[in-house]
Fold:
Amino acid sequence: QVELVESGGASVQAGGSLRLSCEASGFTYSNWCLGWFRQEPGKVREGVASISISVGRTDYADSVKGRFTISQDNTKKTLYLQMNDLKPEDTAMYYCARRRYSGGCGGVLRRGDVGYWGQGTQVTVSS
Structure:
């Protein structure tokens, strides 16, 4: 079965960096759109960044453009999110996700198009 396992969340000070990882299994990794979402308590889960694995196209939410970079390693079937210049407003639970249907992302992956979620990893940024 499809499994997505995140890691790398931590508490950091503003201006710091973190790299999140998401190990994927249970599906043909190269044919899908994968993405990162985040959710603060009481708020809607929002898409942060997406990557179309087969063509390498990446898309980002405006709030993280220039600071976050999504990437992946085909051999390890692992998705990454490099987060630089972190701000307190980046504090959230971060989730890895796979699109419900195969193919590209067509922009930042939308919550309604997600077929599978990871369990989440917490990122806390203090000022």
Remarks:
- The two ends are 40 Å apart (CA to CA).
- The CA atoms of residues 15 and 85 lie 4 Å apart.
- The mean pLDDT is 96.
- The first strand starts at residue 3 and ends at 7.
